[in-house]
């Protein structure tokens, strides 16, 4: 019983420490909104913002690629592909399967340099997005 209480107390302390660290760390992206470029918290990125990524940046949500140069992303979690896939701006047919859309980046991808138009955030966004076929 003492061991169980001690384990609970240590677990609670670790959870509190993680919460404090997460409240200090804030991931930001460079976004252009209303013609002005600024660093904004990733949670505040909304459809219509233009997001600029650099090498190693995380993608803040499902996004349409507006501009890119040598953009390769790891899609292993989406397609199981072991090698990075090249992505480019352009038009894709609306009925193209998500894994074959070469003009879209999805939440949690890591990228190289690109300019993106976020369409939405969260797990439902990839299924609900039909904007990926517009240039």
Question: What do these coordinates show?
Answer:
By secondary structure, the chain is an alpha+beta fold. The chain has one domain: Calcium-transporting ATPase, cytoplasmic transduction domain A. It contains three helices and eight strands. The chain has helices at residues 2-24, 76-79, 125-128, and strands spanning 28-33, 36-41, 50-53, 62-68, 71-73, 85-87, 104-105, 114-120. It has a six-stranded antiparallel β-sheet, with no helix packed on it. Strands 5-6 form a two-stranded antiparallel ribbon. The protein is extended and about 65 Å long. The chain starts with a helix and ends in a 7-residue tail after the last helix.
Number of strands: 8
Please report the first level of CATH classification, the CATH class: Mainly Beta
What is the chain-wise order of helices and strands? HEEEEEHEEEH
Helix content: 10-25%
Helix/strand class: alpha+beta
Quick one: biggest sheet? 6 strands, antiparallel
List keywords for this structure.
3 helices, alpha+beta, six-stranded antiparallel β-sheet, two-stranded antiparallel sheet, extended, single chain, disordered C terminus, 135 residues, Calcium-transporting ATPase, cytoplasmic transduction domain A
How would you briefly describe this protein structure?
The protein is an alpha+beta fold. Helices cover 23% and strands 28% of the residues.
What is the topology?
Layout: H1 2-24, E1 28-33, E2 36-41, E3 50-53, E4 62-68, E5 71-73, H2 76-79, E6 85-87, E7 104-105, E8 114-120, H3 125-128
Antiparallel strand pairs: 1-2, 1-3, 3-8, 4-7, 4-8, 5-6
